[in-house]
Automatic annotation (TrEMBL):
Component of a retrotranslocation channel required for peroxisome organization by mediating export of the PEX5 receptor from peroxisomes to the cytosol, thereby promoting PEX5 recycling. The retrotranslocation channel is composed of PEX2, PEX10 and PEX12; each subunit contributing transmembrane segments that coassemble into an open channel that specifically allows the passage of PEX5 through the peroxisomal membrane. PEX12 also regulates PEX5 recycling by activating the E3 ubiquitin-protein ligase activity of PEX10. This is Peroxisome assembly protein 12. Residues 2-223 form the Pex N-terminal domain. It is found in: Peroxisome membrane. It is a multi-pass membrane protein. InterPro entries: PEX12, Pex_N, Znf_RING/FYVE/PHD. PANTHER family: PEROXISOME ASSEMBLY PROTEIN 12, PEROXISOME ASSEMBLY PROTEIN 12 PEROXIN-12. GO terms for molecular function: ubiquitin-protein transferase activity; zinc ion binding. Component of the PEX2-PEX10-PEX12 retrotranslocation channel, composed of PEX2, PEX10 and PEX12.
Length: 309
């Protein structure tokens, strides 16, 4: 997608989504009817806002979600095993060599866990504020990133499309002139010119239609329409994996947790088919990396909550 956006920014002055809706980017002080090409600096800033910023935000959201899961375990049990390398933050792992730096890393992680939700809410509020102001004509920028880039959105005019077609024909003509100057290549040059012109026209509309088709199929297979159309009888659950000879003994009552020998609370199940209290099995798998019944190697990702209705 980054390559497509870069091509669109260079040729049309807008991202793929913007040009799909007949929009492009231009300088705030540019009042001409014909769109001018973006400078290399404006293209780099636009790509950073379109690709880099969402990527960084998704990574920060993922890190915060992992830390939130770790905090949930602390609330249930009161501690988290030190060997939990899956949920330890990268900052803590980097500072294991020094106690002072380790404390500093823990403080940084704590500040991030506490402050990131407020920062994320403020970021969303700023974007919403720009969009409301843009809707009422109070600002030419519909997002803070356009404000930082010094660009505004405008509609592509008929002259813009004509100028793009003229440049495309000129580029193809210059490339084919080199070929046609060789002897015996005039016929091939004419064929290539025809094919290139037709191919560019097809690709120009094939890429948006292909992306729309992909998004439609993605929605269809994730929606209830597809599930109801292909609904099959629910198969019986598979038999649990036999317990290991040295594994934790199973209680006679199925509602008792094998680890704490108490009635299960906030139940969770491993992929091996055995149910436990969520805090008990979370900390066990974090520390030992295996099922306590079968001794099969497992990770936290193999743990599933059980919801009773």
């Amino acid at each position: 997608m980054a390559i497509i956006d870069y091509h669109r920014l260079c040729r049309w002055g807008g991202s793929f989504t913007e040009t799909f809706y007949g929009l492009c980017r231009s300088g705030v002080k540019d009042s001409s009817s014909t769109t001018t090409s973006l400078s290399p600096s404006q293209i780099r800033k636009s790509l950073a806002a379109l690709i880099l910023v969402p990527l960084v935000k998704s990574k920060l959201d993922e890190i915060h979600e992992r830390l939130a899961q770790r905090r949930t375990s602390e609330r249930f049990v009161g501690f988290v095993p030190e060997s939990d390398s899956e949920t330890q933050s990268p900052s803590t792992n980097l500072f294991n060599s020094s106690s002072n730096l380790e404390k500093l890393g823990k403080i940084a992680v704590k500040v991030f866990k506490t402050g990131y939700p407020y920062t994320n809410a403020a970021y969303s509020a700023i974007i919403l504020g720009f969009q409301i102001a843009y809707m009422y004509g109070k600002t030419p920028y519909y997002s803070p990133w356009l404000y930082l880039c010094g660009l505004k959105l405008k509609r592509l005019s008929v002259s813009d499309y004509q100028e793009y077609d003229r440049k495309a024909r000129q580029t193809r003509g210059q490339a084919l002139d080199v070929i046609s100057n060789s002897r015996g290549m005039q016929f091939v040059a004419r064929v290539l010119q025809f094919v290139a012109g037709e191919l560019v026209g097809v690709i120009q509309y094939a890429i948006p239609m292909g992306i729309l088709l992909f998004k439609f199929l993605e929605w269809w297979y994730a929606s209830d329409h597809h599930k109801s159309a292909n609904m099959l009888p629910i198969p019986p659950p598979p038999d649990p994996i036999p317990p290991h000879i040295d594994g934790t003994k199973l209680p006679k009552d199925a509602h008792i947790c094998p680890l704490c020998s108490k009635p299960r609370t906030n139940s969770a199940m491993l992929s091996t088919g055995y149910a436990f209290c969520y805090p008990c099995i979370f900390n066990y798998v974090s520390e030992y990396g295996k099922c306590p019944i079968t001794f099969i190697p497992l990770r936290i990702d193999n743990l599933r909550k059980i919801y009773h209705t």
